[in-house]
Amino acid sequence: HSVELGDHRHYMHKEIFEQPQAVIDTLEGRISQEHVLPSAFGYQAESIFKEVKQVQIIACGTSYHAGLVSKYWFEDIIGLPCSVEVASEYRYRNPVVQDNTLFVTISQSGETADTLAALQQIKQVANEKNVSTLTICNVPESSLTRESDLTFLTHAGPEIGVASTKAFTTQLVALSLLVTVIGKLQKRISERRETIIVKGLQKLPGLIQSALAHEEVVKEIAKNFSDKDNALFLGRGTMYPIAMEGALKLKEISYIHAEAYPAGELKHGPLALIDENIPVIAIAPHNDLLEKLKSNLQEVKARGGQMIVFEDEQSNVGSEDGLHVVKTTTNVGRITAPITFNVPLQLLAYHVALIKGTDVDQPRNLAKSVTVE
Ligand code: G6P
User: Fold this and answer.
1) What pLDDT is recorded for position 127?
2) Which of 12, 15, 63 best tests ligand 1's pocket when mutated (most atoms within 8 Å of CB)?
3) Which of 19, 149, 221, 261 is the most buried (most CB within 10 A)?
């Protein structure tokens, strides 16, 4: 590889630590005086975004999880309907396409076969339905950028570790800019709200940096995982897709079976799995779902489960027997929270894999870019 490892043992570790810079690079030139520039998405973006009635996001793997987070943002922050689906399902199921849909593909590589096929398929009805296509992609001159009307390039830099980290973070930054710019152009949010969002994004590199500073604590926690066969990740709201991403990272590189559940669904099945052998990881930012999450944690505790809770400065979940609380961040906002809370989960997967001695950057059976079906 032409990209140097420097002091890092693995590309994945290097890429996790590059995230503050990747965010800076992705924001660079996309904001002017606290306003998001529509032209960051292409010169026709402004006229297209004004007409969008709903958003359909298509992606695979980690990129799909970025899409899932943004669904909460689109509907909650700007009230625009948003659907998210994995490409391999969407392309084979004759989906109903609504008029004035913005069809968004998200991809690190720009070459994922299923995502590309879904895009090619939608283009056949694009004129008739007034559908526009946008790709959020990390590779310029890739198949997805060539085939889309609009492109937003995430400036994560080359990502070599098969398990995606910094690309995901910059995809979320891109999606937050998209939500903000559409919201603004359609007068769904005020200028003041836009400014608040932009200021939050500008704080993100520092927030990620402070989450990274907790590496030693996470390393200690990882020691309790190496002999486990299963793990359960819990979250609510945007933390549910972040839990999915945390579980995916853990399975990809440590080969421990991991599952994510929306915490409210616990009682509909996974509670039956809880005993002292299955670690439960919960993500607990201070928000209006925290009290609900806390009672879910008590349900786990009552069954003898061992919990690790990642919280922020204001959550105050409180450590007790069987419940280990780690404060990994200061108080974070609706957009910055999922991006920041993802960081300790990346570090957790990395350190568990390190203890297990797996091939972190090249996990068995997986490819960085899946260009055949
Ligand atoms: C593979 C990679 C994942 C990635 C997914 C989608 O499975 O191992 O890390 O998230 O493909 O790739 P894309 O390049 O489309 O984001």
Assistant:
1) 93
2) 63
3) 19
Low-confidence stretches of the chain (pLDDT < 70) are 1-2
Best probe residue, ligand 1, of 112, 159, 253 (max atoms within 8 Å of C-beta): 112
CA 255 remoteness from chain centre: 20
What is the predicted pLDDT for the residue at 1? 58
Bridge pairing between strands 150-153 and 54-59? unpaired
Instruction: From 247, 208, 249, 209, select the one nearest 336 (Cα to Cα).
Output: 208
Q: Which residue has the tokens 């999922």?
A: 338
State in Å: Cα 106 to ligand 1 middle.
10
Task: Give the type of residue at 104.
Answer: V
pLDDT, position 2: 62
Quote the pLDDT of residue 273. Answer: 87
Residue 368: active-site member: yes
For 251-265, the DSSP string reads: HHHH--EEEEEEGGG
Minimal-distance CA residue to ligand 1 atom 7:
61
CB atoms within 10 A of CB 227: 10
pLDDT of residue 294: 85
Query: How far is the centre of ligand 1, averaged over its atoms, from the C-alpha of 72 (Å)?
Result: 22
The residue ranges of DSSP E strands in 116-166, in sequence order, are 132-137, 150-153
